[in-house]
Amino acid sequence: MLESDTVKRFDALVVGGGIAGLQTALDLADQGFTVAVVEKDASIGGKMIRLSKVFPTLDCASCITTPKMAAAAHHANITLLTYCDLKSLDRNGTGFQATVVQQPRYVDADKCIGCRQCEYNCPVLVSDPEQGGFCGTKAVAIPFSNAIPQIAVLDPDQCMLCGKCASVCPTEAIDYFQKPTTFTIEANTAVLTTGFELTPVTDKPQYGRGAIPNVIDSLQMERLLAPHGPYNRVLRPSDGMEPDNIAYVQCAGSRDKSMGVPYCSRVCCMYAIKQAMLLSGALPLADITIYYMDIRAFGKGYEQFYQNAQAMGINFVKAKVAYIEPGENGNAILHYEDQVGGGITTAEHDLTVLSMGMVPSWNPAGICPVARGDDRFIHTIRPKLAPTLTDMEGVFTAGAGAGPKDIVDTITEAGSAATEAANYLSARSRINAA
């Protein structure tokens, strides 16, 4: 932990601790540069650690991400600053100065040993966002089982101040009076790997605004499919029954001007196909239908992946779902136009997954004078030749912070950003030495 009002110097600052940020930090650290990783969540790992498997190989997402998380946590040249908000990033002479606020965990990070006694003894159950809201967690808890760091976080809005967590903590780490602290980072270069969020289900009135119980988004389905998910198998949220008829609605949050997302989010087709294939294995008797406008299988092996899904019996219907209304027993009724001769029709499904689009999770306005594009992602000045260059000299970007992309492209881009940053640092060293 950094003390309040202190200044810490690093060669590079990486903003975001997802797969792009971790890969960038590791590549720079392995070259001997010191790196600070600033992450807003209580754990590093980003969206990837929350996934079940990755396409098109269907490899375990945790098996890929967890070793990188551990490598970053134990690397001598990397400092992880989790649960921190970047408040400003400005040029300071030839380098950069960042103001960072450490949000209070209400748990002393230097004392917490990750024993989870506070969590086990807390009497307050709250909805667990890490499990899609499908199950409960405690008001004080480690975010998830393989979180790094293994430090508990107390939710002050849910805590009833009963004192049980403090009474059982063997190291007296609970601190109900903890305050935000501010510190400064000085670095010679910065890499923005700020990631994405899904468009909210509640923003789509045609699809029920999240009020239809068995209409969920794709990240919630990832948790249902995950081996460490809320139910340990795929069940309907409303009644705990196994679904027999599952629908995917493509372009539910992108290619849609009414949502403010006119662009294609690129990965939605592939993650829907991946999930459908996993569902076909988990629920072999279930009927699975994907309603799509266009299938965009753009990467290596992606077209074959799509064809494999068809061969498995997954039904693809070329249609745009106009609206969804609640049916009986928590089912959803989809109204759509079949674009291959079926005309306007309806279909009832007992579980519906909305393939929501990707939007940037970070707005640099007022924080960093880096430009954004029309899509609100970080603008890259040479997207074809050098897709990691921003309009600020010495500031680079990688991953979904610069636009929608899959994990393969994200990791490749992170390596490119690390190379650009390393070259920039080396050039600066030569200039200073001259």
UniProtKB/TrEMBL annotation:
InterPro entries: 4Fe4S_Fe-S-bd, 4Fe4S_Fe_S_CS, FAD-dep_OxRdtase, FAD/NAD-bd_sf, HdrA-like. Its cofactor is FAD. Residues 103-132, 150-179 form the 4Fe-4S ferredoxin-type domain. Keywords: 4Fe-4S, FAD, Flavoprotein, Iron, Iron-sulfur, Metal-binding, Oxidoreductase. Gene3D superfamilies: 3.30.70.3270, FAD/NAD(P)-binding domain. GO terms for molecular function: 4 iron, 4 sulfur cluster binding; metal ion binding; oxidoreductase activity. It comes from the Bacteria. SUPFAM superfamilies: FAD/NAD(P)-binding domain. It holds the Pfam family Fer4_6. Belongs to the HdrA family. This is 4Fe-4S ferredoxin-type domain-containing protein. It comes from Desulfosarcina widdelii.
